[in-house]
Structure formats: C-alpha cells, structure tokens
Amino acid sequence: MTDVDAIVAEIAKKQLRIETLETRNADSLDFHEVSVWGLRTALLCAFEAGRKAARTKPRVIETGKKDTTYRATIEASYQGLIEVWGEPGKGDSYKTEAEWVVRPAGKWVITIYNYKNSRAYADKYPEITAVREWHIGGHSADIVDRLLEMMAGRAKLIHRAD
C-alpha cells in the first residue's frame, strides 16, 4: 500500500465510515450510501492532504531574482504565503522585511515581497505577520497570472502594473 492509498483509506474510514476500500465482490460490502456533507468533508480532507504534501517540496530558491520588476500587488495573508511557499527569506530589513523568490521549473522568476508596509519600515505599520498586501515582481507581466493560478484562490489581485 502506498502513502497515498493509506491516506485515502484513512479518510474513507474516518469521514465516511467505510472500513476498507478493497473490492470484496459483494454489493452489500462494495456499495455505500454517503451523505453529501460527508462526501464534501472527505473531499476537503483529501484536498488538504494533497496541499500538505505539496508544501513539503521546496519551491522557493533564494537566488536568481536579478532584474525582476514590479508587476502587481496582491492581497494574501502572511500565513497563507508560508503555507504555499514556506518560510520567507529576509529582505533588506527596512523597505522589505520578507520575500519569496520562486523559480518553478527554473524557467522564470517570481518574487513576492512586502514593500514599505511593515513595522521594520515605520512604527505606524503592522508586524510582518499581519501584512496583507504584497508586491509581485518578475521578468514579464504574465507571471502575475501564473502566480495567482499557483496560489489556488489564496491571493486576490489588487493592482496590476501596465
């Protein structure tokens, strides 16, 4: 049994009260009546397990951001960014306190960073963990759409540079 099979079997057992997912060649054992809310919960558990598994793979590379340019501003929580990209790198500890440099498949670069909006810049701003607006940088404008797709609904576009 693979790790995926074990996770799916555990979700079926806990959420749907199905003891095994093995075919037993008997309708009374192989077919189950499931509520829609139970099915929804099981699907959400499977989705979360997949997202958790994806987070264990390193997606952020600390180098290679040379010549990236501001492309957009998104709204996202600090914790949401960590869940997707892992812990951020340190910025310059003044204008930029946290930054992620993303190089999917090494083809292009996306930078996600706060800019002049955290306590490191001025006391009137929130701690970095409460920042909600993040700048997006890259070599081309299409990286904004790619990033939003990779964030799977965890970020909202606020502004796009022309």
Q: Can you tag this structure with a few keywords?
A:
alpha+beta; 162 residues; 34% helix
State the secondary-structure class: alpha+beta
**Considering DSSP H and I runs of 4 or more, what fraction of the residues is helical?**
25-40%
- Stretches with pLDDT under 50, minimum 5 residues: none
Q: Kindly report the average pLDDT value.
A: 87
Order of helices and strands: HHHEHEEEEHE
Strand content: 15-25%
Count of individual domains: 2
Quaternary structure state of the chains depicted = single chain
Instruction: Describe the largest sheet.
Output: 6 strands, antiparallel
Shape designation: elongated
Report the radius of gyration as a whole number of Å: 21 Å
Q: Order of strands side by side in the largest beta sheet?
A: 2-3-4-5-1-6
Q: Give the count of helical stretches.
A: 5
Description of the structure:
The chain has a six-stranded antiparallel sheet, covered by helices on one side. It folds into two domains: 3-55, no CATH class; 69-160. The mean pLDDT is 87. It is built from five helices and six strands; from the N terminus they run H-H-H-E-H-E-E-E-E-H-E. With 162 residues, it is an alpha+beta fold. A hairpin with a 7-residue loop joins strand 3 (98-102) and strand 4 (110-113).
